[in-house]
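Dear support,

I submitted the protein below through the web form. The confirmation email said the job was done, but the results page showed an empty box. After a refresh the structure appeared. I'm attaching both so you can tell me whether what I see now is the final result or a partial one.
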Amino acid sequence: MKKRRLLQITGVFFALMICFTILSRAAYQEGTAVVHTNKPMNMAISHEVKAAGKVVQNQKIAVTTEADLRVASVEIAEGQRVSRGDLLFTLDQNWLREKILNQQQEMEKQQLSVKDAKSQNEVSRQQKANEQAQAAENYSLSTGRANTVLARAKRNLEEAKKRLREFRENSGQSNEDSSVETALEEACQEKAEAYIQAQQELTQLQWKIENEVNIALNAAMNGTGGAGLSAAETVLTGSADVLPLEDDADGNFLIEENDPGEALFFDTPEGAGENGSGTAADSFPAETQGYIDEEPSDPSLQEDDPGLIIEDDILLEDMPDDTDSYGIDRTGTADLETEESEQGETPASPTQEELNRIEQSVRDRYKIPLENARKKVETAKEEKEAAEQALAQYQQERLSASSASNAQTEQTLIDQVKAAQDAYVDACLAANEAAVTSGRSIAAAGIPNASNSSDRMNEITYEQMELTLEKLEELERAQGKIYAPADGLVTKVCIQTGEKTGDTTAILLADLSRGSSFQGEITEEQEKYIGTGDAVTLTGPGKNEKYEDLAVSSVTAKEGSSSVYQVKVQLPADTMEIGAAATLDFVRKSEIYNVCVPLSALHLDEKNQPYVLVVDQVDSVMGTEQKARKVSVTILEKNESYAALAEGAISSQQEIIVSSDKAVDDGSRVRVSG
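What the results page shows now:
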């Protein structure tokens, strides 16, 4: 009984063990991925290029006519073949004749405009000549009056000095007093002349600046190199009324020594320093040391001294034909307008901002010399006033020691000399100002008028109208009929019967004599595998329309797109009609690779590096198992189906997983499908 019981228990145990084993095996099989594998293949990678497109003409012919003409009839339609000389459309002849009449009338009006513009330019030229003549006349009158006043002031000064000198000689004044006072008077005269000269230098420099500004602005506005004058050249205000200035190393302007009668400037006194003033006070008698600090000069003030007189003998008839009243060559400016008209070019006018910048640039060059000239005037004025004060003080001291009657008479004479001296200085400055002011008027009158090309522009318009009239008359002679210029296919009709023509194409033709070509679009990726000269196959819409070994004529990027390319294939004659749809096929094969796998076998890791999974045999407690192993690879080339891998990572005999029924990763148990 016990033995039987033991056998039953043993049987149940083994039955349970068998069940658990079956269940365990089933669970193991359920957790194992079933995979399909392939060994690497030895093959070439093929790249297929396919593009849809249509047949287009190689050259278009645009048939045009004059605008604003009425269309009487249109003889063709889109898609129609025409031969050279076929009638395309006809224009309304009544409308055409009316258009010709209107054009003739407009040309007559334009001719009158040309005549008026030429007349206006001639009037402007005569007005400019009159302004220049009037400015020269005003210059002569104003400088003549200034010379007369200056000469009179000089005579009055000499007479006042003479009366004072005679009174002192008759009153028996000592030689010592006379020499001291003479030295002081000469110092006053020197300082007055230095002040006049400094004022003239300042005026000259200011005029030089304004002159160069005008030259630079005129050159900019006229688009020339100064219109006959360089930017550094000085326009004189008279025969030699203002001499060219030269600057020294410190930026101070120096005056060249003048010849008699050449200018308003005084000769530089003997013993004067670099700026025209001496510093040798020790050469004067000791009695004068308390009244003056600088060495006086002995300028010549004789009646016949022309050093202070403005030259006024400038005659226009003495000048060459190509010069103005100053002897300046104006050839480049007088004919500037005519020259521009002959060239047919009008320079672009500078903006006001550009003109301001040019003017400021010129003024900046003279900023330091102008400041130095002004300081020199101030210094000369202070020295002049100091010398006058020293003389007045000495005369007052000496007069206080004289008798009352003599003192009063001498004081009156001294006052007369002082008044004459002041009048002389004022006359010198006024004469210089008159020369500069009237000289500026002449320079302004010499500036050429702004270019006026209205007459030439009107002539050009007339010539264009003349060409239009010739075309209209030619259409009238052809009875308004427009014919096909060559054999072609009508691809577009832009006119309608009863409507007016526009200024664009009326009829667009495909020139059949120039042949046709296929034009399709491909992607940027496909462009890598096809190029000029490659032999392709074109398939047309018909069953048997297949053309092989046609060469690609061009592959170019599509305008306005960086990712689309246009491929063009020249077609043989009489193949496909223009406008027909077609398909391009081309296959580019690579070299033979030893390790090629389907794209489904490739994976990317977290770093976007490619890898494949291979199957390895592994021993375990369950026996021999198959597991997946990750192998990193390098892709050499690929297409839509296969990829070529670099050799070395995997061998040609390894089983590579290409598909599975479950997700598989490195180390996963797998079972290769039988």
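Response: this is the final, complete result; the empty box was a page-load delay. The radius of gyration is 54 Å.
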